[in-house]
Amino acid sequence: MNARAGVAILGSTGSIGISTLDVLRRHADRFRIVALTAQRDVETLLEQCLTCAPDYAVMADETAAEHLRGRLRAAGRSVEVLAGATELERVAALPEVAQVMAAIVGAAGLLPTLAAARAGKRVLLANKEALVMAGPLFMTAVREHGAELLPIDSEHNAVFQCLPPEFATAGLERCGVRRIVLTGSGGPFRTTPLEQLPEVTPDQACAHPNWRMGRKISVDSATMMNKGLEVIEAHWLFGAPPDRIEAVVHPQSVIHSMVEYQDGSVLAQLGHPDMRTPIAHALAWPRRMASGVAFLDFARLATLEFQPPDFARFPALRLAFAALAAGGTAPAILNAANEVAVQAFLEQRIRFTAIAAVVEQTLERVSGRAAETLAVILDDDARARAAAGEQVAARAVEG
Ligand code: NAD
Ligand code: MG
Fold it and tell me: How many domains does the chain have?
């Protein structure tokens, strides 16, 4: 019998983490869960430790780790509980780990995801913010350390599936690729009258029509900043110049993205909007395995619609394209400002429409530079957070 592949899940208590565990449980003969991690959700991580029996559980928050330790001891379980952000990096690089699911949300995922790449792991990348912040650095680490980078973001996973295997070495041009078309549903406010947008609530913003996701990415989908981050992600993942990447609104979320070739062919990847498909694809690659996702019933697929994105409704998308064109640390500044603004909106400190305004102002005030080192990127991330914090304070709604 072949040895089972060791898996570490960074962010196992989140939406992607839970979907990953669901897929892994269907294939216990092929995969072994080495490490599970979370920020501070003790209850969920405890339940996952009891059912999955990992060797390690890491909590970024030290107090939460202490609670988890006590609860596991009381349950008579011998999971080693580690605490703090640097332990996330350590478990991502353990020799017994073959695959790392990078599913922490936001900039917090950068260092552990980078650690997995530097340890030459198969990196299943959900944490798009890591690539947005540090694209060139991250891609260099993947190359130099022989890591395997497989996209989990449904659009990028779709594009990956529509590209020929040799694209990684030959490049898009030689593979005859003309355009990468990223689809996006347009989120819950695609048809909301513009004058109502300032009044929408966090719960409305998080009620995505097609996908169940964490709250940060749900808000990003509502502003379409998510598509903007994905354009930047596609640029680095596939080596595609910005003018070869197009975002298209496709409300049904059945086509997850497409690749257009010089001869006029367009290859698309279809499926139910369920992240277990890309997760199973990446875990099993280059083979296939069951994911638990239902199969498409073509008789019930009434229509597939496409529209150009409305940049007036979704200014965040325009800002992301601008940050990509500016280059250097501009995408890291965009990402940091967006994280601060989204958090403020979720806490009802600013209006929905202030999110893009905070990001725009931050990009104007914080000058970017060449993103040569991690230190520079993290420094600009911190400068952007401080500037965005001031913007949030200036736009705070009356409590
Ligand atoms: P989520 O909020 O549901 O889960 C986030 C996970 O990260 C949790 O386990 C949390 O404990 C952990 N975490 C948060 N902050 C942390 C910190 N400071 N230190 C350590 N751990 C921390 O988010 P999600 O929806 O699962 O998304 C995760 C990532 O995957 C994001 O980058 C998102 O953009 C990407 N993604 C998600 C989906 C989706 O369907 N949910 C689809 C595509 C891409
Ligand atoms: Mg996506």
Answer: 1
Nearest-atom index, ligand 1, CA of 11: 9
Q: Which residues have CB atoms below 5 A from the ion given as ligand 2? A: 153-155
Residue 59 phi/psi, 5-degree rounding, is: -120, 130
Write out the two tokens for 351: 């209006």
Ligand 1, atom nearest to 211 Cα: 40
Q: Which atom of ligand 1 is nearest to the CA of 126?
A: 30
Please check whether residue 105 lies inside any domain of the structure. Answer: yes
Please give all residues whose beta carbon lies within 6 A of any atom in ligand 1, as ranges.
Answer: 11-17, 38-39, 41, 60, 103-105, 108, 126-129, 153, 211, 213-214, 216-217, 275
> Could you tell me the residue range of the domain that residue 21 belongs to?
5-151
Indicate the pTM of the whole model. 0.98
Q: What are 314-334's pLDDT values in tens digits? A: 999 999 999 999 999 999 999
Residue with tokens 């914080």: 366
State the Cα–Cα distance between residues 308 and 213, nearest whole angstrom: 24
Answer yes or no: are the C-beta atoms of 248 and 239 closer than 8 Å. Answer: no
* Domain-located, residue 85: yes
Cβ count near 144 (within 10 Å): 11
Find out whether 380 and 329 touch, Cβ atoms under 8 Å.
yes
Residue 142 lies in a domain: yes
Residue 342 lies in a domain: no
Distance 152 CA to ligand 2 centre (A): 8
**CATH number for the domain harbouring residue 65:** 3.40.50.720
Q: What is the pLDDT of residues 178-215, one digit of tens each?
A: 999 999 999 999 999 999 999 999 999 999 888 889 99
